[in-house]
Records
---
Amino acid sequence: MYPLIAFIGGGNMAASLIGGLLAAGHPAQRLRVAVRSADSAARLRQRFGVATGTDNVETAAGADILVLAVKPQQMAEAVRGLRPQPGALTISVAAGVRVATLAQWLGSAAVVRAMPNTPALFRCGISGLYAPPELAATARAQAEHVLGSVGETCWVEREEQIDAVTALSGCGPAYYFLLTEVLRDAGTALGLDPAVAARLAHSTFVGAAQMARAAGEDVALLRAQVTSKGGSTEAAVAHLEAAGLGRIFREALAAADSRARLRGEELAQQAAAARA
Ligand SMILES: NC(=O)c1ccc[n+]([C@@H]2O[C@H](COP(=O)([O-])OP(=O)(O)OC[C@H]3O[C@@H](n4cnc5c(N)ncnc54)[C@H](OP(=O)(O)O)[C@@H]3O)[C@@H](O)[C@H]2O)c1
């Protein structure tokens, strides 16, 4: 029997997960969604054939899994009055809202925090997952069932590591897009037609990623294999290393990690102030 999954919030991320679950065989009758507006509810009902509504408490009643998919700043309002049934699991995909805050709001510590990324829209995402150590293996498997429907999953051991996941894979698609732009512009500067440079840059990254996945080798080894002594690749890579590419990325990820941590602290303070 498939678990009854209730989504609170039906935007981009919830729609990705609902589409992924349906494609993986999860029956539409075992999915429900609550949103803010009647328009969104009607659109989602039409698109996915699932039950939709605008009453969060009613939608969540009797659910085995609750997926909280509203913006972080909408969370306090969205979970007001929600009480997961005993044994139910809550999964939050909202950046920065901590397990302790959610547990307090919901009166249940059976909570998983997930940090998916935008390729989830095309079911090729990767999600970092965190759960308190005492969460049962069956609940962890349920979280993998939900997030695994839109890509890969991996667990982190400490909640603060979700900020590092945000910095790496959450923000990562933007790094890839930026590098593709940079490569395109550098190719154009060497005299290539901009459209040709764009295709070369894009297909080279996609091809290299597919090659790395298919080869299953350490990327450092693959790089050594394509870098002949005294050749053009070696000249370019030596320049990138001398210019501090590794340091630049370490600093960039540290900036994203700090920003995510700060946002988490702000949200925790707002939650505490709202309770006072
Ligand atoms: N998109 C991503 O790639 C991504 C990646 C990682 C994490 N996330 C996280 O996923 C969460 C959702 O992001 P999103 O991009 O899907 O947001 P979104 O497209 O803005 O969707 C938000 C949804 O929440 C609904 N909502 C707002 N307030 C509500 C309330 N009080 N009760 C019930 N529903 C309510 C909205 O309903 P209406 O449609 O009626 O306004 C809308 O369906 C965020 O916390 C974000 O941090 C997203």
Note: The first helix runs from residue 12 to 23.
---
Amino acid sequence: MALLVTGADGYIGWPLLLRLARQFPHEDVIGVDHGGRRTWISEVGSDSFLPIASMEARIEAAHALGFSNLQLLHRDLTSRAEVYDLMRDFAPRVVFHLAAQPSAPYSQLSADHAAYTQQNNTDITRNLLWAIHELQPQTHLVITTTTGIYGAPDLPIPEGWLEVDTPAGKKTKLPWPPMATSWYHMSRGQDALNLWLAHFQWRLSITEVRTAIVVGPQTTETAMEPTLNTRCDADFYFGVVAHRFAAQAVLGEPLTIFGAGKQEKPFISLEDTVTSLAAAAALPVDGQLRIFNQYEEAVTINALAEKVQDTAKKLGIDVRLQHTANPRVEREEHRLAMSNGAFVQHLLPQSQQSVTEALSEALRAFAQQRKHVATLQQSLLPLNERSSTTTP
Ligand SMILES: NC(=O)c1ccc[n+]([C@@H]2O[C@H](COP(=O)([O-])OP(=O)(O)OC[C@H]3O[C@@H](n4cnc5c(N)ncnc54)[C@H](O)[C@@H]3O)[C@@H](O)[C@H]2O)c1
């Protein structure tokens, strides 16, 4: 039996690979990645804010620590031939599909970046769906998309499906129409539609996990030794807002809140993200398309900044909050009402780490690596506002 993880060199994929190897010691755990994230981040003049080892060194360290059932292979999953070979070679019981170009600001950089992001992301998902259909229809596909698919509507957001009344007085369920607000997020909306199509045509077993903003520098496994660190980005393009605030705090900079900061966003800790994805391995292979909203807490950006400010104070760091012009087109006062009942019931009955705890860990980790973080200070800004910059 094998478990396959795509995007296994990534922020979530690497800790998931380790978790699966530990949780399923009698199965082969195969990770694949083409290392693209490492290239994209250097293209925007940044790096992981916590130092990370090469793919080879990571695997060596993992094997030395007893994770002997895992491998990490270099593959580009936009190649259909590579995906079909993987499916033939390993016949995985579950595919955890995390590979994507996941940055909205990166996808907004130019027409080329938008096209690259959409082609990369939708090609991989479509390749996997066809490979499962043609070679391995009993494989369970677990895929992380994003809560960003929903946009910021004036409606309570359900878990994937919109229930509407039919003219015959009955109820019917429709897939929520993607109302994403970036080229990246829309690529995942397109993926979600293709999942629906593949399920409609072939009745594959698919679990779509709509992931919220993930916070935290580590999980139980990556914390075992520094070579197992997962990447943690805080730059303008790839860093999530919580990590950007944590880096600004450690560097004594004001926390820059884009716009009014009243928009509520969904968050989850990295530990809980990995725990709940691993739990999906136990869902039945019954030809269902399940959709979960993988989030724990909705917080306004202002409240998030205040959380970072309070936590920083406990570490002896005083930080100011500063509102700046919003570089994103978004609804700055949007209140989030998003269901996550099925997610809590089936994938995360008990949280292992709150968002606030994950935020404190990020602050502590960045403070310990302050020298390294300081070398990346310029990358907190967009390329055109840096004092010395390389244009992509
Ligand atoms: N981190 C978050 O806050 C967050 C939020 C919402 C959704 N997600 C979703 O979770 C998943 C993982 O996100 P992440 O933050 O770990 O991103 P990440 O960039 O760290 O990891 C994705 C990995 O996929 C790899 N990859 C991309 N294209 C590939 C290709 N063609 N072939 C092989 N490998 C390829 C990249 O090299 C990278 O290592 C993505 O699907 C993303 O959309 C993440």
Note: The pocket of nicotinamide-adenine-dinucleotide is lined by residues 7, 9-13, 33-37, 75-78, 98-102, 120, 124, 144, 146, 188, 211, 213-214, 231, 240 (CB under 6 Å).
